[in-house]
Design goal:
elongated
């Protein structure tokens, strides 16, 4: 049984001629080039989709490969606190306010848990550092230190220390 219903309606001589030409003269050609040769050299005026369907049904042409995946889903981080994506989106969060605040959210990648979310005038460095500060201050033994303790990642802690001092101030609260 054929996949393409239009193959059943075509005269058998035409189907045999197309398949015979592909087997005898144009073996190994791709479907687009074969279709062009049918038109140019043999005067066979068939649609490309009909020709490719006929060749695929006869097993003479493979299916087209799909293009590369545009967005691949990556694996989540294995431990909490390894990655805190920050996202800001302007919307009319509070109707009638007269301006559109940005919602800033800091979310843990591993647990898909929101650590901090707040509205601000505009997403920027100040707003993001403010959110990061509240995450670090509120959970002194939280995400950042927990990762260092579990993984023994001293370089990570040393890299984060100047940022913590800048965001939180030099003295812990």
């Amino acid at each position: 049984m054929t996949r393409c219903t239009s193959l059943r309606r075509m005269p058998m001589e035409t189907v045999e001629k197309v398949l015979g030409l592909d087997r005898e003269r144009y073996e190994g050609w791709n479907g687009r080039h074969f279709h062009e040769k049918l038109r140019e050299e043999h005067g066979i005026e068939l649609s490309y989709s009909w020709v490719s369907c006929a060749l695929q049904t006869a097993g003479l042409l493979g299916k087209r490969k799909r293009g590369r995946v545009h967005r691949r889903e990556r694996e989540r981080r294995p431990m909490r606190g390894m990655l805190l994506p920050v996202d800001g989106s302007p919307r009319d969060w509070i109707p009638g306010l007269g301006w559109q605040p940005d919602l800033i959210a800091l979310q843990d990648d591993a647990a898909n848990e929101v650590y901090e979310a707040f509205l601000c005038e505009e997403e920027g460095t100040k707003a993001i550092l403010s959110g990061l500060r509240s995450v670090i201050v509120e959970s002194r033994s939280g995400a950042v230190r927990r990762r260092r303790a579990i993984a023994g990642a001293a370089p990570f802690g040393m890299t984060l220390e100047p940022i913590r001092k800048f965001v939180c101030g030099s003295q812990p609260k």
